[in-house]
Amino acid sequence: MTKTVAILGSTGSVGTQALDVCRRLSIRVDALSCGRDVATVEKQIRAFSPRLVAVADEAAAKDLALRVADLKVKILSGREAAARLAEESEADTVVNAVSGIAGLRPTLATLKAGKRLALANKESLVTYGTAVMEEARKRSLPILPVDSEHSAIFQCLTGQKVKTIWLTASGGPFFGKSREEMKGITPADALAHPTWNMGSRITVDSATMMNKGFEVIEAVHLFGVTPEQVKVVVHRESIIHSMVEYIDNAVMAQMSRPDMRLCVQYALTYPERAEAVIPPLELTALSGLTFHEPDGESFPLLPLAYEAIHRGGVCPAAMNGADEEAVALFLGGRIGFTALSDLVSEVTLSMPSMPSPTLTDVEEADREARRLVRDKALS
Ligand code: MG
Asked: Which one in 94, 181, 328, 338 has a CA-CA gap of 20 to 30 Å to 253?
């Protein structure tokens, strides 16, 4: 069980919920990192007294140094600061809740430093999963999933003879709509998620189902199964967080209220369980649990993710880079909702495949995919 923790991406949705769990379980917070939200991180520093804080944005780091001049806290700054913090921290577990491919180097640094990794940054596995899993295996370190579906699967894995992993998807706010009906969707429409409260990129990714595609790839790496063994089922109520079906057709499901704090808590207390920080599930108050096939025509980024993992190499990294860029353009009002999916598909499929890529190859594919998306969107 975790005694001391470092939280990377502490000002985001998962980061703040992780701090809430630490406070309730009396886990010491040794280090925090953020991008540039120094007002929030200052409050966190005053509440949790970490020894180390990393701020990616240099100017924001200087601002923070002034704000906390009365405190004994070491501030690291720059793009590599979160990875350095993962290394330098005295934490036994690092929660990586950084958003986007920016979380990849901190993931590698955590594992190389021999620390347990509680992973909320799915891009680490989407972009460079084979290498990340190899780093963990070499050191016999568990990767503790914080993504709710993967936490559920992790909790349901009781044996080796897995037939199918059923990833549940809420379907997002546009479930049941045709492509035509989705043309006029605005950022405000896409940011209204029916069941989960999350950051803006992942909320848009849930609306396009790109998020579920990333999670398929994440599951393939985390649990060592084939893409064909990972199936998606739309479950609107977000009560079953995923399921594991064994060769004897027994299906294990993990159920709870949709609240990320349970996922963070289990990652931090594993292999133990601790008293609940979330309210109980009231079974008799549920009106029913429903299941539907996902619609690959209205949501083409889900089948695209299967294609990307089949192509392998840098293809999933290019898909992620294209998506990060396209989501930013959509949120900035530069492209429409269906154009977002079209651009990500087009750019992903145009990238050359490359077997056994290095970290440099992956980061290069990410940059190239972003450049292509910008060029195509703004031309
Ligand atoms: Mg998830």
From this structure: 94
